[in-house]
Write a structure and sequence with these properties.
Length: 409
Amino acid sequence: MSHSKERVEKNCLNCGAEVMGRYCANCGQENTEPKETVLTLVSHFFNDITHFDGKFFSTVKYLITKPGFLSSEYIKGRRAGYLHPIRMYVFTSAFFFIIFFSLFSPEAIILAGKNEDEQLKELTQASNSLKEKLPAAKADPILYAAMQRSINNIDHHTMSLIQSIDAKEKAKASAHPGLQINDSINKALKNNQKIVGKTPAVVEKPDSLKPGKKGSPSDDIDFGEVNFNYNSQLAYDSVQKELPVNKKAGWSERTIARKIILLNSKFKENRKEGLALFLEKFMHTLPQTLFVSLPVFALLLLILYSRSNFYYADHAIFSIHLYCATFILLLFIFGIDKISSVTGMEWIKFCELFFILGIFFYLYKAMRKFYGQGRGKTILKFLLLNIFSFFILMTLAGLFFMLSVLQFS
């Protein structure tokens, strides 16, 4: 029932029938004033989508605190006091993916990321700037202590980054012995050192090993053991034609290779941008992947509980409620991760583990409540369900990945 003012007239504006009470007995329309305020429109919006009159919140409360309860109530016919499962799924999944895509943007992850050299430069500048201003801050002991702690933190981060870069350089040198000699010569020249018995010359690294150049390890796109660093599809196809049968790529591998070659040629000036666009396209298939997996998940339950008196629709209702609860629990995990990254409180990440384990515990309790079987049978079916669900999700993700590759241009 809306909170709009009831009309004095007793004729229905929709069908013209006489109205006895607030609702028309003929068509069911509420006999209220047709003119509405903005506040009334906003109220209608939330009521129609979520039943904010109490039904939505009570449904969420029972969904989280009583696993399997809502599904049991639904199949028993007790439905008036709760939000319909389909509407619940639409609302929670839409809200979940709005938050998900705002937190995990491919452009933000790939394009905004700094390489190690840029990070090192930024950290060094910050440390030097604070050290220059440190003597002037002695007048304020609190500020002085805060700046000292900041300098220590930055220098600690800088040292860790230097060690990481050094370890990678050593690994690169061991993988390419020739580069180790060239780097040594270049460093010797920079430090004005003479190498006895040799006339040193600056030996440039191959383009394929220079950061930011075409074919650099950071920009090459690899799939399996094949490097797709070809300039054209013709070059790739000609190589495949000359390979022995046992070395030729399969259809799916060739398809992906051609698409990556197209990506390399189209975004050769900025491959990270191209990769970000592709990842964005793939990430936007996640809602479809989960939606398709839902009826498959219900089918798994039908097989596991084939001897019970539950129909496929009952398993589907259980699956919908489970997916809704998982969306809500994952939002808590994302929120904790965001709080940890903003505040720097690493200990709070232990709460993430709590909620991750909570998802599996929720599934077990829901199965136990809804299907009413003993602990032994429930645990066995719980394990089988998780194993099969994992392989099904991986298969669906692979299919949608292939679809993203085929559609990407």
